[in-house]
Amino acid sequence: MNFIVTDRDAASVRTDYEIRFVIDDDIEASGDKEILTLMGFEKGSVCDLPNSRRLYVSIKDTAPETLRIAISKVIKALGNHNIKSIKVPRISSPASSVGGTTTAIQEIEAALSAIAESFVLSSYSFDEYKKESKPCNIEEVYVSVTGCDRVSAEAALKRGKVIAEATNFVRDIVNEVPQVYTPERMAADAQKLAETYYSVKCETKGKDYLKEQNMNAFLAVNQAGPHEPQLIHLTYQPRGDSEKVICFVGKGLTYDSGGLSLKPSNSMYTMKSDKSGAAAAMGIIKAAAELELPYEIHAVLGATENMVGSGAYKPDDVIRSRSGVSIEVNNTDAEGRLVLCDCLSWAQDEIKPDYLIDLATLTGACVVGLGDYTAGVIGNNYDFQVEFKKKAGLSGENYTVLEFNDHLRPLIDSKIADVRNSVPGGMGGALTAGLFLDKFIKDDYKDKWLHLDIAGPAFGSDAWGYNPAGGTGAGVRGCIYWMLNR
């Protein structure tokens, strides 16, 4: 999909179709007031006028997220239309802003980026295994701009497109089926990224290396799986000096049966999505390389399956982790934190980042508490949590800060080991999982670490907004926006 900037008025640009926004139900200036009234056009609605080749969309304002949602409605409404080109209304700064000021230009750029994101995100489909596919036919999107020079406008559209394409890259990984997408396949995809971008390097390590590193918690999860575990390390190096070193650690369970603490069949379905955190970390590297961000960025992925067999790790086992912390296993379905704890330990020692953020579909408790559409931001540094929520939230992704408290800390204590891997009863499960991970964060990193529980928004049974059913690519846009706006 190509985005074309024009300084001409939208009316003078010839395309197959035209989008028109109606703000606050004001149809007086629409040009089609009579027919819109006849068709009952109202707040929040969409009205397709094929004879005029126009699509009207009701919006409350021109904020970036409003525009993302509006464009998603456009794609849904025109999905079966055989059109190649489309134009959007002229984009300019809100009336409250002074044209040409830094703030006004930033608002225009944010709107343009959001429009490009939504066109690419909303056009996504995963139909690898369908006999027939129905891809979006739109190839060209014309955008009229006032108050922002062409170079800046084109850069903003490109930024939105890059971020969305990285998100769709992650969606493909999450949606790929478990018999195809194994830990080895994740390692191969990481290597392809390194081959594609000169600024990216990749190292992959297997079982022998994990043994050398005493990554016994990671290895325990892998014990019954037929595929070799993979510790994958991607590094993006900027052209100039790096402002900061940022490390993203991703949970990469390419399939999670629950192990001997076997999931019910209805809970096991969709567990191909348990690799969403690692996939998101890869997507972040892809976007960073294309956007040429000024940070040295690392992605550490722990890829394995959690399966059932005679060699499986068991409830009552005690595991000595890489950091030396002993773990009593009381639930083999609390496996993601076992993979993450060793990966976090490795990242602190080997990378020594300025910021350490892990992404994981970690707990059903987070979904219960926050719903399907919101990720939890967990950590020790409240200011860091709030800063991340605010800046990552500019992407349109939803984040909520969840705070530790000292009354919860004793719940993860074990009578026979340093810590146990889950708390019976599940009360405060998202936070106690975070507290478990906190046991493996060194004092020097306590205030530099965040845990993002993306269990809710990473995979949806139904489409919502500009997200399809299935993998959504949750975490990619939020983390990129956080870095762009630091």
Main β-sheet description = 8 strands, mixed
How far apart are the first and last residues' alpha carbons, in Å? Answer: 29 Å
Question: What ranges have pLDDT less than 50 throughout 5 or more consecutive residues?
Answer: none
Number of helices: 14
Kindly provide the radius of gyration, computed on alpha-carbon positions and rounded to a whole number of angstroms: 24 Å
State the helicity in percent bands: 25-40%
The share of residues in extended strands comes to 15-25%
How are the strands of the biggest sheet laid out side by side? Answer: 7-8-10-9-13-17-14-15
Q: Structural class, from secondary structure content?
A: alpha/beta
- Number of beta-strand segments: 19
Per the principal axes of the C-alpha atoms, what is the gross shape? elongated
Residue-averaged pLDDT, rounded?
94
Which terms summarize this structure?
8-stranded mixed beta sheet; 6-stranded mixed beta sheet; 14 helices; 486 residues; alpha/beta
Describe this structure in words.
The protein has 486 residues and is α/β, with parallel strands linked by helices. Helix content is 34%, strand content 22%. The chain contains 14 helices and 19 strands. The protein has helices spanning 33-38, 64-77, 102-122, 150-175, 183-196, 207-212, 216-222, 265-268, 276-291, 336-350, 364-370, 382-392, 429-438, 476-484, and strands spanning 2-6, 17-23, 46-49, 54-59, 85-91, 140-145, 200-205, 230-236, 245-256, 296-306, 318-320, 326-328, 355-360, 374-379, 398-403, 419-420, 449-453, 459-460, 470-471. Helix 4 (150-175) packs antiparallel against helix 9 (276-291) and helix 7 (216-222) runs antiparallel to helix 10. The longest helix is centred in the middle third of the chain and has 26 residues, at 150-175. It is elongated, with a radius of gyration of 24 Å. The mean pLDDT is 94.
